[in-house]
Amino acid sequence: MKVCMITGTFPPIKCGVGDYSNILCNYLSQVEEINLSVITTKGIDKNNKYKIYDIVKNWDNSELKKIINKINDINPDIVHIQYPTLAYKKNIMINMLPYFLHKKYKIITTIHEYSDNSTLGKLRIWPNIFLSDAIIVVDKHYISDIKKVKFLRKRDFYYVNIGSNIPKSNIDKKDRDVIRNEILKNNCNRILGYFGFINRTKGIESILYAINNLKEQNKLKTMFLIIGELKKDDEYHNSIINLINKLDLNDYIYITGYLKSQDVGKYINASDFMVLPFVNGLSSKNGSFLASIQEGKHIVTTMRNGRKVFNGLNITYLNSYDDIQTLKNIIELNQQEGIKNYKVNSDFKFSWENIVEKHMEIYRNIIKNKRKLL
Fold this sequence. Notes:
By secondary structure, the chain is of the alpha/beta class.
């Protein structure tokens, strides 16, 4: 079975979908049944596991013919598009690509974002959905939202959860203590961790306001560990830096900067608990959540549309991302009693082996079935 994966990003380009695509391809390439090729952006990391064609400079109409020609050279059974990625930007070429392929090839599109997109952002995805033989969503609630569009209802949808892009750490107590001693200062004895790309959907301001409230009451004994980076050339990151300075919190914050994936788990493990106050609520596609639960950490996060996405002893839900008072109370309680972390239970089976098997079922399905009339 020949599969051509199309993704705008791949390591070393920093993008969650690119990391996901890389891990998925590494696992797919180990399946004897699969002959895998990847078309992606110029300048990415190469390997000897499968063929990588980094031929695309810009994902716009000027590159369309080049991509189609390469797909024709490969002549795959399936063209599998990962959408969106940072490299696509808002160009519609990737959305129109299935139109030029669907009469010759079986097409799958994996949708990593939908429900929280703007109306225009959703509209941009519709051609991919309409012209695909199968649509994979990483959040099962995308299916009901997409089906609100009448002419898209009869497409074949599959929910396949994502896995963690971060490998589980094997850190021992000695190395864990080294990291904790590196972070703890100002008589603090607890570490509140945050991991992930920092943008307006992550609610990081709420954490800053909560720890500031404790500082103003002379009750703060918790360091805020940001496992990530704040770039001075990023407008939103600058607003966070300015807020930290305004609240005079620099002595209570430790920023790791960009870390290699194999080091991220160590810092998550060294935290007492993780706070992930997603503005739009927790989703099964949130990689920072999966990386945290993988390390057995207690997670404070946000309900999605008033409901708990997962149930488990390791999760405390806020009603909304800006519930600063409740978050402050949780931090203070942890300082007094310590939040208990539990082993990961059976509700969190997000192994990559399971994800690959689900993909294989979909691949076999669409090859076996005749194309539905569009």
